[in-house]
């Protein structure tokens, strides 16, 4: 079987009448209307605001707390020619915030410069040493963007030393806010702004709009970048900002972004929110992770196409370096994760790992394992890195009470950064195991995804795709609709990008559907098997290639019922046969004792009777032949397995052995009557040659004659029995065992993969 990564929710339409009214009013399909209603847009007014985002969706910037104070102080600084510094951050939201605020101040004629802290030298947020340096260079007004709300002490130093501070931020607020000239924050406790979900760039955009006394639409594209890249919910005001910003980006991208998209090979016509999330965002973030994010602000503010092109080229090179680092470290981290399977929270450490990409690596480990993960670089007795979590485990809470084990720590429920003394590694693993138990991580269900509808392949078409685009831009808070499709099977399974990704053709009752599965290359071997049932969930995607337009699914999740069959049957049993990671089941005790010790971890050898002590196994490989099907049936019913891998090796297959005829029986009996005291130990080959008979057939006939009391074999000496009783030879036990073994081999060894799969499936369903 293939287990899903998510719990699938198929919600009923909350209000059928509202969906019908919305479909008729706006001319959208019933499906789109139902999606709107289920997402809370169940009136004409709310649906209109969602479907037609525009300038009217923006709130008055002066509704933000302290905005009037901030603008008054900024205008005073501009009028007096004061030296203003914009202090930003090194991620995309921080870079775009810095660019927006700097652009607006320059447009107003201010004496302004900007500073973007270095991830490795300055760290995140307010930095007193840099504040003091900037003050020493004549700074008279500091404006923070996308940071500052946590800098109470640092801001106090500036204010006490004659430098005014305006904080603009959107992060979680501490109990005590900085005593700055103004704190502009959409969730300020003394404010009443209608929407608290702005990004740092969104707050900077509101300040710019207040300065200009009109929406700062020239930097709407940058505000959109910040919102999407910082994974803000694309609802309410953010939806309007991102929709208009994407339109600007698509119609007339600024030189820096045009150059960045060109180096990335992205067509301007294809720009959407995914372009920010997967093309622009990672490239700008690469600067902060590996180099100096200041170049990102320079790129966004560049007017000269040549300068923009040169900067974009440098960023593209850095991004490739980032991708290579992530790929290398991820492989090492995932290999280490395989040795920590008993840990509910993975703490993975290595040496020589670039700290700038460890958060990305941690995310990949979480995606691959479904477990919270912390990835650390070990250097000079300290381990520094990042953690990412799953919805069921609050990573911040899990470590917050154990700061005595940590050198530095900060973050929130789903992500955190930390430094841990190397000597405390095991202690941290131990407390996380305890915290996971306390939070009930093991009992938590899978994270939930909402399915818009269950459809067939034919629904993946141009009409439906175009209809769904009225719901865009997609992102956090407004995800692309997910569709479930029941399959008859899969074909043309192929991996891409050195096995990382997957593509296949899904067969349904009404046609086939191309499927792309990013990051699921490991499923390729699984999908080569067969299942009782299989369902996939994903989004509808348009694919343009050489003028042709087709529609495909981008896979989100998959569920396959019935054990997956990997056909490992072979006529030769070697160490290589037993080299794959699996639970190898032996029916023959002698084989188990001889070959079991040769199986290397993570593989394991299990005698079949001991397998019933297991509640489940991953891949269950049947090394040799059972004595009868009932043994196999019991295993299939009582030991659940993710995959079945039949080997069913036998040294001397009975199925290939010729059945003895009456003439063969007569020939051997005549020989036994003609000679006495024949030594089978010394004369066997001579007998085979004399009778011109197959060696295995002779053995069977002698066993049958012994059962029938036609002959005696004492100490290897053969003699005929005078006047034996007449019997039916085919009813003798040895003959019956031979026939049964032939039939068993025919079913298990000499059947087709499909026939064997059907047999194993039926055996697993038999009544106990």
Automatic annotation (TrEMBL):
Domain annotation DDH: ranges: 83-226
Pfam families named among the record's database cross-references: DHH, DHHA1, RecJ_OB, ssDNA-exonuc_C
Residues in RecJ OB domain copies: 452-557
Domain called Single-stranded-DNA-specific exonuclease RecJ C-terminal: residue spans: 565-758
UniProt GO MF annotations: 5'-3' exonuclease activity; nucleic acid binding
Keywords linked to the UniProt accession: Exonuclease, Hydrolase, Nuclease
Domain DHHA1: 344-433
GO biological process: DNA recombination; DNA repair
Classification via SUPFAM superfamilies: DHH phosphoesterases
Transmembrane intervals: none
Similarity section: Belongs to the RecJ family.
Name of this chain's protein: Single-stranded-DNA-specific exonuclease RecJ
Gene (name only): recJ
